[in-house]
Amino acid sequence: MELKNKTVLITGANGLVGIPTVEKCIQEGASKVIAVDIRIGAKLEEIKAKFGDVVSLEQVDLTYMDQCERLFKDRQVDVVLHIAGVKGSPTRAAKCPADYLFPMLMFNTNIIKASHDANVGWFVYMSSVGVYNPSDVMKEDDVWSTMPSKNDWYPGWTKRVGELSLEALGIQYGWTNWTVIRPANIYGLYDNFSPEATVIGSNTWKIFNVDGDDIVCWGNGSAKRDFVFSEDVAQAAIDVVKKEVNDVINFGSATATSIKDTIEIIVSEYKEITGKDKNIVWDTTKPNGDMIRRLDPGKQIKYGILPAITLKDGIRKTLEYYNTTIIHM
């Protein structure tokens, strides 16, 4: 299904993946892009000012079913890209599990059911690497024979329930116009840059904001992660619609990079951008987290749903954005 001349509704539109998805849907020729989030930020306002009536900004709390249903009232929505999620680190998920569990259970269930009832042409559900039990290679069909990692216990289960919701509608009503994407560890321009963010977001914040020559990092750097750039994830959400992929697919880089190598790239690119150097100090009293997370790329290769941006280039883009936009706000 091509997006040209279609109405596309995007949840989580104000976020890390949502903003580039809005931009890409406009580029694809969508006649209307409905950008939905619980808050509307300056970047979405800028996009709206540029493209006018093509973009509709909807400030909605998707944890209320009636608000979800109103999004479809008196309009035919062709495609729903459900990207909304509660983003954060495993540390935050362990300390504040209810912050993940309740809103995600409610808004995932609500928007899935409302989209089905509105007979949308295609639905994309953005799941998570957190649904998996850690292993050297995470394969789509292995999920239900394992448990999520304890480091992702609550968000992992809530994402799984969303997947089950789609499966249930398929069994009972024959609704198969959907794709589930399980992305790897996402980073990018509109990340949650803070000390409690995920690896690249938190260390981007540290390197620009912590005084002194040292950047202190958790663990010993030996853990490995599959990182994927937010713009690539946005493109994947569109590509599965265009190819009508009725399947559950991973979306990663097909490799796992150590935290040590990742932070060394951050330090190197920071020096290229600012001319300043940082010394990496490992705090081995802090945990490494799961030792490896790498998604099996077999299905995404099969469907031709592949990332285009290398980790080095993605980190460079992220640091340049932080340096020119966040630091000087």
Tell me how many strands there are. 14
The rough form would be described as globular
Major sheet: size, sense and barrel closure?
A: 7 strands, parallel
Which range best describes the helical content: under 10%, 10-25%, 25-40%, 40-55%, 55-70% or over 70%? 40-55%
CATH level 3 topology of the domain at 7-188 and 227-253 and 292-309: Rossmann fold
Explain this structure.
With 329 residues, the protein is of the alpha/beta class. The protein has a domain at 7-188 and 227-253 and 292-309: NAD(P)-binding Rossmann-like Domain (Rossmann fold). It is built from eleven helices and 14 strands. The protein has helices at 18-27, 42-51, 65-70, 90-95, 97-117, 153-173, 199-209, 230-242, 259-274, 298-303, 311-326; strands at residues 7-11, 32-37, 55-59, 79-82, 122-126, 178-183, 185-187, 214-218, 224-225, 227-229, 248-251, 257-258, 279-283, 292-293. The protein has a seven-stranded parallel beta sheet, sandwiched between helices. A three-stranded mixed beta sheet has the order 12-9-14. Strand 1, helix 1 (18-27) and strand 2 form a beta-alpha-beta unit. Helix 7 runs parallel beside helix 9 (259-274) and helix 9 (259-274) crosses helix 11 (311-326). The chain is globular. The protein starts with 6 loop residues before the first strand and ends with a helix. The mean pLDDT is 94.
